[in-house]
Amino acid sequence: MRIKWIFFLLIALTAGISKAQEAEDFDALERELILYAYEMHNDTSAQNRLSAAKEAARLLAEILIKKGSYKHLFTELKGISILEPADKKFKIFSWEVFENKDTYRQFGIIQTANEKVFVLEDKSESIKMAEQARLKNDNWYGALYYHIQPFTTGINNETQYLLLGRDSYSFFERRKVVDILYFDFSGKPKFGNNILQVKDVNGQMRNVCRYFLQYSAAVSVILRYDQNMDMIVFDHLILGSPIGKDAPPSNVPDGSFNGLKLLKGKWGFVNMVFEYDPNNVLENAQNPEMIMSQGNKKRDGNKDIFGKDKNASKNKQIKVNQP
Hints:
By secondary structure, the chain is an alpha+beta fold. It has 2 domains: about 1-75; about 80-315, no CATH class. About 20% of the residues lie in helices and about 35% in strands. It has helices at about 1-40, 45-65, 290, 310-315; strands spanning about 80-85, 90-100, 105-110, 115-120, 135, 145-150, 160-165, 175-185, 190, 195-200, 205-210, 210-215, 225, 230-240, 250-265, 265-275. Strands 5, 6, 7, 8, 9 and 12 form a 6-stranded antiparallel β-sheet that branches. A 4-stranded antiparallel β-sheet has the order 1-2-3-4.
């Protein structure tokens, strides 16, 4: 009997040492990843920044395929956005790198809870009709994601995920994007679903797979999920004047807000969530530094994202167009 107890004790000790070594390995790999992340955002050479970004993608994928890696929290890592939905079925890592004044590169990786890894390949420059495109991980419209929101579709009560992201896009213009992520029957990620209802420049309603807000680099634009109102809220944009020599006319906020609200598994358009308020025109937008540092600005718990009283938001009657 004593021999058996010694045997089990040795097994327990060995397992404990193995787990400690595994944790140390992840910490060491994270420290290496931190160096690449710093270089890809701070090196003065575009070639070095891109090289570091690619090495970061390689190393992160190498880390994420290791057993037990899903539980590693990457608490010290800055420069890469890490989002996990409330159901904890996967994590999505994303980051963007400045190449030159007109070019930004996006990188991303999805890791499922059972530690399957899917590298996201940014093909945004070659994707035609991006609003209507259904995409895969090897044909991804790249974005730096800052919010993820699970929702249930009207078909088979399937869970899909709303993604809000930013694309620095070009010198004169920025983009924010609403995208939809889901997993097919084989567990592979897919992007885009024709269940977003938006209003085009002619005032006509149409359904799209993803939605873009393209706006002047000189202004800030809101695209956020308001938990209290249970809807997406975003700036209503109008065409503004060029911001400089050789710049095209660009969209700017007019101080009012539209929205998207889930109705029967689809996201219906909401006109004029809030009416014109000049104090909201330059509301702080999430910039890449804020997103990738994982820093969330704290605000008054009784106020919504616009600084308005939450109870007033709750009592407001929202008219949702049928998707």
